[in-house]
Amino acid sequence: SAEDPPHVMLATLALCTLALSQEPGTGSAKPLAEHVTVARLEEELDRSLHWLRIGFDPEQRTYGSLELDALTLTAFATSPRRYRASEGPFLAGPYAGLLAAQKADGTFGDANLDVLVLAALEALREPEATRAAERLLVARPLRRMEQPLGDGSGPAERARTLLALRNADGSFGSGALARAETARGVIQLSRLHAELKALEPGKAPKEA
After folding, report:
1. Which residues does residue 62 pair with via DSSP β-bridges, in sequence order?
2. Pick from 12, 18, 21, 20: which is nearest to 146 by CA?
3. What is the pTM of this model?
4. Among 138, 68, 73, 64, CA closest to 107
5. Separation CA 85–CA 80 (nearest Å)
6. 89-111 pLDDT, tens per residue?
7. What string of DSSP letters covers 8-24?
């Protein structure tokens, strides 16, 4: 199968770093007793996406900041449902804000913010987003990073471990960091969902 473009790999890896060594919060959910299936993981992802969605401010049309908008858009767009920006104000608003935030030189802020925004633009698969991403890459080329090695366990077990860190309401983390950590958790779980789905009988990774 074709590899992700270098800039997509960098962006994805930069925002999928939810530490599995952290301790579950006070309201954390109990670890799943059963084996994690594709269908079960989709249900769990929907719960976390719902938690993210209720954080949308309809008046300001944002999740609170450009960083949070980028992370949340990536979470929705890379989930199994593959949301598009046109599916509602909770995505269209932050998406419009992202496009409007691009500077004359093509960047959006510092390198860390640009990586997050790039991931969202690539994930949304919209013509305007593609053009904005191309302008950004001309202004600030991004170097490819190697994918970190896993711990040797399969995607189902890794998903089960990650879900054990989640709070009972579907969120990750706590306080001011909860929205960003939840978006990162969804992105990571969605990658594990794709790995798990590819292992199903009769399934094979699609060629790009």
Report:
1. 57
2. 12
3. 0.83
4. 138
5. 15
6. 999 999 999 999 999 999 999 99
7. HHHHHHHH----TTSPP
